[in-house]
Write a structure and sequence with these properties.
By secondary structure, this protein is α+β, with helices and mostly antiparallel strands. The chain contains four helices and twelve strands.
Length: about 210
């Protein structure tokens, strides 16, 4: 008898349809000359229900040090586009076996101003989860499967203000991480597209530590 590989679960269907057509805010619209990159938004079903894979960048990096992020990085010349790059980076950073991931869709390209990259988010279903662990100790400090129910819990939601006072954006406190910036903005878009988001208090504002 031949085993039939499980298809993506019904809870991902709305996201699969809505993801490719989410709007891009003006601040994230790509600009000419930016370097191409990709990230993997990896959905799975773990012990605590539907989840998303996040990494935490090493505190010693020059850019985005200590920040939670989706696995990802620059698209190399040998990569066959953003999908291949996202899967490769997830393998290198977190031990995600590419053969166990089914690509659901790609989201519109986004501009990451701080590092001058235009980023293609690639969404995948973790059909056959593999053991995960930081793959590059000098780049990745931690990897975690974060349940969607924790991400949408209003108690874990807040807005953060940059020490300059000029920037304000959504954030999440989950699994001993403060997720903010580009990753939090993209996560918010993902939760909206999937129909999972819940109302929360957007007047809850905290200042980021100066080192952020």
């Amino acid at each position: 008898m031949t085993d039939i590989a499980p298809s993506p679960p019904p809870w991902l269907e709305r996201f699969r349809v809505e993801g490719p057509r989410v709007p891009v805010p003006p601040v994230f619209r790509p600009v000419d000359g930016a370097r191409a990159a990709a990230v993997l938004i990896l959905f799975g079903e773990g012990p605590d229900g539907p989840d998303v894979l996040l990494t935490e960048r090493a505190a010693t990096l020059n850019k985005h040090a200590g920040q939670p992020a989706f696995p990802g990085g620059r698209i190399d010349p040998e990569d066959d586009g953003p999908v291949a790059a996202a899967l490769r980076e997830a393998w290198e950073e977190a031990g995600v076996e590419p053969a166990g991931v089914d690509v659901l869709c790609t989201l519109p390209e986004l501009y990451l101003r701080h590092s001058e990259h235009r980023v293609t988010p690639v969404a995948g279903w973790w059909r056959e989860p593999s053991e995960i662990a930081p793959g590059h100790p000098g780049e990745v400090a931690m990897v975690a499967r974060v349940p969607i129910r924790e991400l949408v819990d209003p108690a874990n939601r807040l807005m953060v203000r940059h020490p300059s006072g000029l920037r304000l954006g959504p954030a999440f406190r989950v699994r001993d991480m403060l997720v903010w910036g580009f990753t939090a903005a993209l996560l918010t878009t993902v939760l909206d597209a999937g129909g999972w988001n819940r109302p929360w208090d957007e007047d809850r504002v905290e200042d980021l530590p100066p080192e952020r």
